Structures are given as C-alpha cells and as structure tokens.
Amino acid sequence: MENVVLHVADVHKSFAGLHALSDIDLSVREGETHAIIGPNGAGKSTLLNVCIGRLRPDSGHVVFDGENLTGKQPHQINQLGVVRVFQTPEIFPELSLLENVMIPVLAKRDGAFKLSWFKRFSGELDARSKAEGILEDLGLGSLIGGEAGSLSRGDKRRLELAMGLAQEPRLLLLDEPTAGMARHDTNATIDLLKRIKARGMTKVIIEHDMHVVFSLADRITVLAGGRIICQGTPEEVKADPRVKEAYLGEEQV
Amino acid sequence: MNKMSAISDWILFFGFAIAVLTMPIWLAPFGANYPDLMQRFAIFGLFAIGFNILFGLTGYLSFGHAAFLGIGSYTAVWSFKLLTMNVLPAVMFSILMAGIFAFAIGFISLRRSGIYFSILTLAFAQMSYNLAYSVLTPITNGETGLQLTLADPRMIDAMAGIEATRTLPTTNLFGMKMSGMPGFYFCAAALIIGFFISIRIFRSPFGVMLRGIKSNQNRMAYTGLNTRPYLIWAFVISGMYAGAAGALMAVTDPLAGAERMQWTASGEVVLMTILGGAGTLVGPFLGASLIKYFENIFSAYNTTNLNQIFDFMPDSIQPYVVDIAGLFVGKGWHLTLGLLFMITVIFLPGGIMEGVRRIGLLFKRNKKNTVDAGGATPAANS
User: Fold this and answer.
1) pTM (global) more than 0.80
2) I want to staple A54 with a disulfide (CB 3.0 to 4.6 A). Which of A49, A65, A85, B245 is the partner?
3) Which of A211-220, B100-109, B291-300 has the highest mean pLDDT?
4) Domains of chain A and CATH, by start
C-alpha cells in the first residue's frame, strides 16, 4: 500500500497574478481513495486540470508511476491510465449511450489511433458487451440505444462515470461525482465507488459533501487559497483546528 | 440487432446501385436521361459523398475541396498525355496525387478548427488556383487549360503498339470508348464503389470516432484518443474522393482547367452536401444531382422561352413578369439555386434527407393511429 502512484511535486500555477496553486506537494498511494477538499476557489479543479494535462503548471511537475506527465498531451496522459470524470458531464450528446461508452472501451483497447474503417462498429462484440455491462451496472441498461443528449442531468452524470470506468483506469480522478444528485442517488454512487475500491482502483476524489468524503476516503488533503493546509487520515483531518476554521466551520454555519 | 443493421445496409447499397444504374430509364420522363448530364450526377455525387465524410462526420467545413478536384483532373490528363488513354491508371494516379496534396494541406489546416480551419482551406485552394492559372503554366497550360495534343508521347500505348492517329485519341477502358453511355456507366461504377466505401466508413469504429469528434472533440482527447490523425485521415479520404471525381471529369472530357479549382466550385460542394443532408449516406448524392439537374433546366431558359410561357398574361403585365422571371434563369439561375437553398435550410435544416425522414415518421404515426383506433392490439405500440 505504500507505493506512490501519483506524485504532485512542488506545483505552482497562477492566472494573471492570482496564485491558484502554490507549493502543492501531494502523494497518492496505490489502491487508496484520496479526497481533496476545500472551500470554493481553493484550487481543487485547477489541480485536477494540471494532472490531466488540460493546464500546464508554471513550475513543478506531476509524476504518475515514474512517468513525468508535465508537458504530455491529454490523450497521452489518458492512455497511461489517468482518467478524469468531469463534474459537468462531458459526453457525446448526439451519440447513443452505447456509443458513448464503447468509444472509451475502444480507446483503451486500440490505443490513441486506429484506422479500422472496414470493420463494423456494431460487430465489436467484446467491446459492446463490456460497455453494456458497465451501463447495466450504473442503472442505464434500459436506455442503451437512446441519444445521450436527451438524458436527465443525473443520468448524464452516471453516463460520464460509466465512460470513465469503461477505460479501466489505473488512477481515476473524480470531480464532485455526487454534486447535484438526490440523496438516494448519492448513496448509490457511494456504493458503486466502494465496489470499485474493492477492485483496487486508485482514486482521487474532489467532493463537497462531507458524508461522501468520510464514507470513502482513506486519506484527505485539505486545500485553501491554493495551498495545502492539512493532510492525513479522516480522523486526523476532522481533529485539525485549521481545517475547522477554513472549511468545516464554514460548512456548519 | 447487429445482423439487422448489416442487412439494412446491404439493402440500402443495392437499392442505391440499382437506382444509379437504371438512371437512363427512370430519368427519361424528366428529360435528364442523356449521358452528359447523368455523368455529372455521378461525378458530383461522388465528390459530395467524399466531402461528406469530412464535413458530415467530423463537422470540419472545408472551403477548399475544389483544389483536389482540379488536381485530379490535371493528373488524369497528364496520365493520358504521357502514359496511356486507358482511364484506369488515370483514375488511380489522380486519387493518389489528390491524397498526397490533401495530406499536405490537411496537415497544416487541421492545426485549427472551426472558422479558422475553413479559412485556411479556402486560402490553400485559392493559392492552388492561382498557381495553376499562372505560375505553373508549364504543367497546367495556364489560362488555356491542359489538353491532349497529337505530339503527346503516350508511352504505354506506344509500347502496346497502339498507333498514333491523325485525330486526337479518345479515352478508353481497355479499348471501350469512354464517351456517351459507356462513359456514364464508368462514372456510375465509380460512384457505386465510392458509396460502398462511404457506408463502410460510416458504420466502422473509425466513423464513430469521427462522429465523436464532431460531437465533443475535447472529450475525445480526455478519452485517450488522438483526434489529429483521425481528422487527417478523414481529410485525406475526402480529398481522394475529390481527386477521383476530378479524374472522371477528365475521363468524360479530356481537358483540365484552373477554373475547376476556384472557390465557387468548393462552395458548390458545400451547398450540395447541405442541401441533400450532411452526415447522411444518400443525401450528398441527392443534393448534387438536384443542383446539377436544376442548373441544367434553368440555365437553358431564355427570354424567348419565357415569353412563350407567360403568353397567356395580358400584354400590360407580361413584359414585367418576363423581366423578373428572366433574372432567375439562364445565367441568373444561381438566384434560383440561392432561393432553393434558403428554403431548404430554413424549413429543413437537415436537408432533403430530413424531409424524407419526416415523411417517413408521418406514415409511421398514421399507421400507429389506425392500430390504436382499432384497439385490437394494445401491445402493438411497444
């Protein structure tokens, strides 16, 4: 469990003079669920964007499993097994649910580019059954042939999660997976994430909902104003006065 | 479900092939069953089907595809001049050459997307046009256009013992002359092959990836897919289609001019694709045929015809009506095209194919209603 898979080393990022991230040092161990919490504007999403190559840090670097991710293209980072699940669903609205999930399945199987123009997409039976299984698992099994754009907001978020899982990531970055969900959907998502955890997938999760954080996380990093103010097990973080001041206190008000 | 869709694709393919091959019969009532016009249906249909692989699937709007049409024509004529009057090598070389140029232009243009991509392709096409028109005169014969001459070497023909004649030789397919009806059937065969490849691409994993790019290109990158080679291949394939279409133009009439590469020609294929229905299989061919058909009909009218048509009107109005109608015919037929295009885009944004789909839905609903009214089979709805 002590193997560090993701190491964020001394990362700085500023936007027009505003320090979004300063001195970020973070290690995620293999198999753990690492939660990143903090008030709005703390830099949580920026940190994820740095990890997946959407943003380039001003200094410092991100290392995943011995590979430096800094400067790599988003698709290269993804192919290494670092997959992000977006907060606002980034789906393919004009495509069917099955196609939405089969694209990541094929991306995992065939790599970043494959010119298979003579095969039939619907004849990719292995990929198809895998995608169907994942959709079934997330309760979207009955909507498989429908257009993704016509889904409800909650279902879009589940589809987004399905697309992430379809890639069998080594490191899954979840950006507020339960934001805007009803309580019972939230619980269903927690159950699902617990099941994934049992499979040994490493996860980094950004979350506002403390119920979700404390039921899933092995370790927690607290960000405020672009800096790490506290890091440790849920119990340690709960007990830390700085966290109460910066975040939990605010939440209770 | 998988088998069903495969079967319906075969039905579509054979239906298309039969419809194209029997054009000489069923186009007779429309007065459009002469080879020259049907060749244009097939050639521009092929051009539009290829264009649709780029525009319809990826959403990247190229305004420069006429460049590849022109390159195809020049290459074919050079093949006739230097090697042989047989059309097969000419078509092959044209496809190859257009593919090479498409790779070069696509490689640079695809660094940008949206309007910037369109402008880049437009700029490249206009550069090609100007090069062909002036700078590259030794290769393109500039203003006059590239033509066959009696002095052409035609090396393969010479080796095969085909003697030079006193008149200009004609294009042929292993001896079969490629003018008139055989010429049409050759173009039709090329169109059908092109349509088949288009179906395969649409239904393949590659095609779904292209649709994914159109739907949400950013997401493709965060799904581990490198969109650039996908786009470059789509661009090259559609460029090759344009090259083949250009070659067929030279096959039916062995000369090539720079005006084929002008931006109006690039714009025309955009209109054809949108009019027929971008992203559909049959739509681009329908759009191309419709535009070529109307061009043929409306551009043939002149004032004398119009005077005859509006003869029934009182003399006081008739000249004015003829004057106004005269704007829309003859050389002004583009005005008619513009109106047709506007009406289609406003009322049927998905083109002719959306109209077909809506009519299909209407029929289905009617059927359903009658079943409901009968009330005999409540399960029929599911």
Assistant:
1) yes
2) A49
3) B100-109
4) 1-72+199-253 (3.40.50.300)
